[in-house]
Amino acid sequence: MKIKRNFYILSAILVLLLLSLLACSTQSYPQGAGLENKTWLLQSYGETGNLTAVIHGTEITVTFDSVQGQVYGSAGANTYSGSYRVSDNKLSISGLTWTEMYRLDPPGVMEQEAEYLRIFKTAESFQMKNGTLQINSGKQVLIYTEKTNGTLRGNVTIGPITPVERPGEKPTVPPEAYEARKIMVYDKNRDKLIAQVDIDSNGYYEVGLKAGIYTVDINHIGMDRSSDVPKEIEIGAGKTIELNIDIDTGIR
Q1: Which end of the chain is more exposed for a tag (fewer CB within 10 A), N or C?
Q2: Which residues, 6 or more positions from 73, have their beta carbon under 8 angstroms from its beta carbon?
Q3: Does 7 score more than 60 pLDDT?
Q4: Every domain range in the chain assigned CATH 2.60.40.1120
């Protein structure tokens, strides 16, 4: 009789454990845990399996403020804000408004912004995995990563390209000239190289860096020099530092 009673007790305990595990698996995000009080940076958007990457040189962010119950961020050209509610992994947005600035560059930024806001304001749920946030609206999704780093970016000009340049004329910089140059990011005391950053064929560069103080320089090809670097910069989490660099090749 005692053995039978122990069997029933053990069975009851196993059932309770199973129910507990099932409950945990279906309530992954109680009251928005992990979603709120962080800045998220959009990486891609659109229909699952056919996502569109965010246009290079634009930034779309979102922050869910649990204290105020407000959501806000940048849509690329304009800032937006509204209210939100979460229940488990369900998400709803209401009262969304945004500013009405117009931006021409880069091409497509306004269309991207309109599509982002259309999907965002009809959000239905969210899920997170490995530091990635996915907001779902029907078949449309928004994919973010947490914006814990800051960004260093800017434009690089190179010249002269030829020994003789006529006044008022500026020869086109060949892609290989940009390809050969690098932006060098060191720690504050220049004891350690943190990043070597490529410059694209239009002279643009961008790199994500942890919050901290850095020294920025170029790799000094030939007689290259610049009055813009070396330069000490301070990167803050979620902040962007613009540093444009004019490289004098020394060609005369």
Answers
A1: N
A2: 39, 40, 60, 61, 62, 63, 79, 80, 81
A3: no
A4: 150-248
